[in-house]
Amino acid sequence: MSAIPDTAVPRQRPAADPVPGGQVPDGADDRGGQRPPEPLRRAFGSAAARFGPALGLYGAVKLIGFAVFMMLLESSGKFREQSPRFGGGAHPWDVVGSWDGWWYRQIAEIGYDPKLVPDPGGFFPVHQDSSAFFPLYPGLVRLVSDGTGLGLYGAGMLVSVVSSFVAAAGIYAVAAHLGGRRAGVIAAAVWGAFPGAGVEWAVYTESLFVALASWACYFTITRQWSQAALVAFVAGLSRPTSMTLIAGVALSAAVALFRRRDGVAGPLTAILLPPLSFFGYIGWVGWRMGHLDGYLTLQRYGWLHFFDWGSYTSTAVANILVGETAYLFPYPTEDLIAVLVLFALPCLLVPLLSRRPPLVLVVYTLGTLVLALGSQQMFGTLSRFVLPVFPLTIPVALALRRLSLPSLAVVLGVAGAASGWYAGYVIFELGIP
Fold this sequence. Notes:
The protein is mostly helical.
């Protein structure tokens, strides 16, 4: 066998040899640790540059409002005298885990057992049942609780707070696409002080749903049909009003399919996939109850929540305007806030529609408002049911973007502080969220 020439064997650098010029190898920092890969760092930097101002401003508004909310709770002290299930607790922050938050924690702990149990002698003809609440949020709460050890309350708050920032980013993306970067930043902050915004940082599902709804709308607007279909599908497991989002995505996809501008597979997926989650859960509840309309029956007779073409809303408003309380569940302060929200809706809706926004925003906005105003429910909760209609922040943002930075800071700061009262304390302690 012939010998291998010495020049054919590559020379190895001794392990102790320094890197020429004192340079740090790719992927390592000067302390011996590993740096994130370059593409990941670039993506993070790009995301921070894009969404950082919106998230920062939103967080500042929310922190101000939440601090005022907690101060008002501590000042009144009423929460100490109330049940932890109904706006009470040992500490001020326990309040944001009560009301619907109690139900979500129950679901996260023990799951569902859908039943229609008559209650002839009770206020509600049918016993209230947790299957009225959709499964996505409590499922995430259980997952985070098991994974972190935070407990159900801590996990619920973590899911809501993180979701609220994802929602703010989605609102920014939609508003910036329609009105520019400055309008997008302001829209995210305005949503943090919107009526009903107190439930954004609470054991409630609004933040999670708006996170999904805003990004589903953005993907639809930018014609990313596969992403829109997937996000809308997940949103269908979040709450009943997701039907308006699903309809908006499907109609927009149908238009794209008709015009043959984005192929067939993407738009068709956005039409067929999202409804499966929504109707799947409704169907499962009905199957477990032994009634195809079990979910609707539970909503109507267990929660007194059903579509009545606006009859209850009209009755409540007529009573409130003349100082009467001849309607279900009167809460004077909360109901007055709801009336003001009702009067503000046309002032926001008309400027929004006059800009001819994309179809998905029109269907989602109008559909959600029709359900909120056309259904019997606690009238004071109108502010919370309007909270998911994030496109209404766009006209406000377009008006406020003309302000100088100091003026804008004052407006948003005052709005944030005031929201701690009208969007937090009022709905949790002077009414029902």
